[in-house]
Amino acid sequence: MAALSCQFHSINHLNSQKVKSRSKHSIISCSAQPIQSNIKVVINGAAKEIGRAAVLAVTNARGMEVAGAVDSHLVGEDIGQVCGMEEPLEIPILNDLTMVLGSISQSKATAVVIDFTDPTTVYDNVKQATAFGMKSVVYVPRIELDTVAALSAFCEKASMGVLVAPTLSIGSILLQQAAISASFHYRNIEIVESRANANDLPSADANQIANNLSNLGQIYNREDSSTDVLARGQVLGDGIRVHSLVLPGLPSSTTVHFSGPGEVYSIKHDITDVQCLMPGLLLAIRKVVRLKNLVYGLEKFL
């Protein structure tokens, strides 16, 4: 479809060499411009807490709309009602990604698949999306770097855009960037984190921070590198120690402590609700449609 765009132009004409009279004519020029259709968004893992939050965020965002919901739970339920919306979206939750993608691909619209599943299915999910000409945003904590490398090679060959985001929290990304800057000035670094449960500790955030700092080629905590005292925490990367506090009701929190002669510098980030991931998710959707390869990390677009 196209929209008609018209512009009004005024042109002055001078008559004779001595400017005896001035005549004015108007010209209207029109051109057809394509209408930008909404990005069709498929949410794989829609029944999860983050999936439901994504449905609400995409529905309320400009330029995109929920087009499909995939999950093995609540199959057949309307995703709008599952999310507590006043009106149903008339989009049932299905347990067949191929069926959903095939249906949406018939519209020839730009589409993005959001993957909230698990590391064992990500590769096949991205391949399916690519087969139907759709880009993917992958937010699957604990995804293996070998899987990311395999996806990168696949996307390069298929010229298809995929964004793999270790985190969608903009605050978490800013903390990581601040930690990198601080690490050039301090050699004693420790990470203290808190979580409501003990699943996958140290957390993906702590691992990411330790990896980022270790890639700078520096050795940290040299004076304490050889201790075997368990209370000193787990060592990640090049001597960075992580301490994990687990108590029900605690917010998801990450603090990085740096110390130097006569001072301590600490940076902290707290997550109190899954809503904090939604601005990053919407940014990822808008950016991935322009990609033709795999990009690792939302920070590339901040």
Task: Show the helix and strand layout.
Blueprint: E1 2-15, E2 21-34, E3 39-44, H1 49-60, E4 64-70, H2 79-82, E5 93-94, H3 97-105, E6 111-115, H4 122-131, E7 135-138, H5 145-158, E8 162-164, H6 170-183, E9 188-195, H7 204-214, E10 234-236, E11 240-246, E12 252-260, E13 263-271, H8 278-288, E14 294-296
Parallel strand pairs: 3-4, 3-6, 4-5, 6-7, 7-8, 8-14, 9-11
Antiparallel strand pairs: 1-2, 9-12, 10-11, 12-13
Strand order of the largest sheet: 5-4-3-6-7-8-14
Kindly report how far apart the N and C termini lie: 33 Å
The helix/strand order is EEEHEHEHEHEHEHEHEEEEHE
> Residue ranges: pLDDT <50 for 5 or more in a row?
16-21
Count of DSSP H/I helices:
8
Shape: elongated
Beta-strand segment tally:
14
Mean pLDDT: 89
